[in-house]
Specification:
Elements: E1 4-13, E2 22-36, E3 41-46, H1 58-67, E4 72-78, H2 88-99, H3 105-112, H4 117-124, E5 127-133, E6 136-142, E7 148-154, H5 161-165, H6 174-190, H7 208-211, H8 217-227, E8 232-235, E9 242-247, H9 251-265, E10 270-274, E11 282-286
Parallel strand pairs: 3-4
Antiparallel strand pairs: 1-2, 1-11, 2-4, 2-5, 5-6, 7-9, 7-10, 8-9
Helix pairs in contact: 1-2, 2-3, 2-4
Keywords: Amino-acid biosynthesis, ATP-binding, Cytoplasm, Kinase, Nucleotide-binding, Threonine biosynthesis, Transferase
GO biological process, one term: threonine biosynthetic process
InterPro entries: GHMP_kinase_C_dom, GHMP_kinase_C_sf, GHMP_kinase_N_dom, GHMP_knse_ATP-bd_CS, Homoserine_kinase, Ribosomal_Su5_D2-typ_SF, Ribsml_uS5_D2-typ_fold_subgr
Length: 287
Amino acid sequence: MGFKSVRVPGSSANLGPGFDTLALAVPLFLTAKAYQADSFEVELHGEGSSETVVGNHLIHQLVIEVLGHDRVGLIIDSEIPLARGLGSSAAVTLGVAAALGHPDPLGVALDFESHPENVAASYYGGGVAALVASSGPVIRRIAVDPLLRLVVIIPPDRLTTEAARRLLPKTVSFGDAVFNLSRAALLAVSLGHVEDLVPELFEDQLHQEARAAAFPESRQLLAMLLEAGCLGASWSGAGTICVGFTDVDGVERVHQRVEEAMDSSGLGYGVRSLAVDLEGLITLGEK
C-alpha cells in the first residue's frame, strides 16, 4: 500500500425524514496526508487542531487496523466543525484510510462508522441513500440538482452523535413511521429537481424534536430558515447545525435574510451558503 494525500468532503445526513439513510456531500473539506515515520506522528490543523491523539483515539485505531503497526506520520487539515452534524467523524475515518493507501477506504470507514450514509456521501459526492442490511451495507447514489444550494447555520454548541441518540425514543408510533417514510421517499426522488422541493418534504416526526431537548434553539433556527424563504429546513445529522435548502437564484437573498434574523435574535451564529459537493473523495498525490 502506497501512502497518499487525499481530500474528503463533509456531509449532511438525514435531511429531515431520511433518518440514518439520506445524505448529501458538502464542500467543507478534510485533507489527509500520510508519510513514512519511525513512530506515530500526527499534525492536526484547522477544526479539531486542539484534539489530543492518544492510543485509543479513532485515528490511531484506524492506523493499526489498516497497517498493523503505527510507524507512520499523518498531517490532517479540516474545515469540518466537530460534533456539529457535518460528518467530521466519517470524513476523518475515510480520509485516513485512503491516505494510508488502503485499497477499499469505503469498506474500512463503514466498519468503523455505525451508520453508512455520511461515509457514502463523502466517498461518492452528491446524494446517497444507504442502509446496513444483514448481508452488509447497501448504498445507492441519488440524483441531485446542480442548482441546489444549502444555507447552513453553525452554532458553537457541540452535540455528539452518541449523546443525541440517547435522546431518541425506543419505539415510535405507526403513524409517525408512515409520516417519515412517505416524506423520505418523495424527498429522495425530488432532490434531482429543485423546483419539486417543498417544505413538507423535509418534515420529521422521529428524531428532531426529541433532540431539541439538548438544543432548544434548533426550533428557532428551523423557523428562521423557512421564514427567510428556504424550500425546506432540517437538522444536519445529529446537530447542532441546521440547514436550509434553496436554489442558486435564491441563495443570496435567503442568506442575507438569515443573517439579518440572526443579528436581530441576538444569537450571533455563523451562516454559510454551500453548493453540494459532487466529487467526493479525491486523491491529491501519491508516494
